[in-house]
Amino acid sequence: MKNSVRIKVGWFFIASLILLLIVFAVIRSLESYSGIAQQNLFELRYLEHPIVTALHMLSGILFISLAPLQFVKRLRIKRLNLHRQLGRVLVCCALVSGAYGLISTIVLPAFGGLPSEAAAWFFGPLFLFAILRAFWCARNKKITQHRQWMIRAFALGLGVGTQRIFLIILMISTGYSFEESFGPALWLGFGLNLLIAESWINATRSK
């Protein structure tokens, strides 16, 4: 497969994951303000903590929706100041989303048990480290490393979308319940995204 085709296919899947996450966020927001009593334990956890949920979701959606603009070469070259200003906004969104993601792990009961909690405490700090490292590299003119860490951070940010796909696959293929599949799907979703990010970094690494 040619490199240009790989890029197009990759952006198609990225756009699909972003759309999937936006749809889930909209549905959950509508349910939060509908006043309808929820029996689903997964949804109920979020509805009982609306502030944590809203800050986590809104900042996360802004990050994954705007981050692709940072990878547009033409924008970086012709609108460098815009690239930098948008980068600062994205760092703030990522830090808020990541921090509240960890807070929700403490405040909300761990859905899916130990596998879910372990995944949150492994990939959550890794996401925060990646975005802070990317910012540090940009400030110190280490542009190649900045790009690599931003790719990792963006891949981790999309991990929740990939997890939703694995969740459906596991429930259909194994017959496990939603709660039983949730933790393993988290590990698979974030792990696969990180593996793809590292593969892309290695394939495009400057000689």
Uncertain segments are none
Envelope shape = globular
Q: Portion of residues in helices? A: over 70%
Report on the biggest sheet: none
Counting helices, strands and paired strands, the structural category is mainly alpha
SSE arrangement, N to C: HHHHHHHHH
Question: What is the total tally of β strands?
Answer: 0
Q: How much is the radius of gyration in Å?
A: 18 Å
Helical run tally:
9
Count of individual domains: 1
| Strand coverage percent | under 5%
pLDDT averaged over residues:
84
Question: Termini distance?
Answer: 21 Å
How would you explain this protein's 3D organization?
- There is one protein chain.
- The mean pLDDT is 84.
- The protein is an all-alpha fold and 207 residues long.
- The longest helix is centred in the first third of the chain and has 32 residues, at 3-34.
- Helices cover 84% and strands 0% of the residues.
- The protein has nine helices and no strands.
- The chain has one domain (3-203).
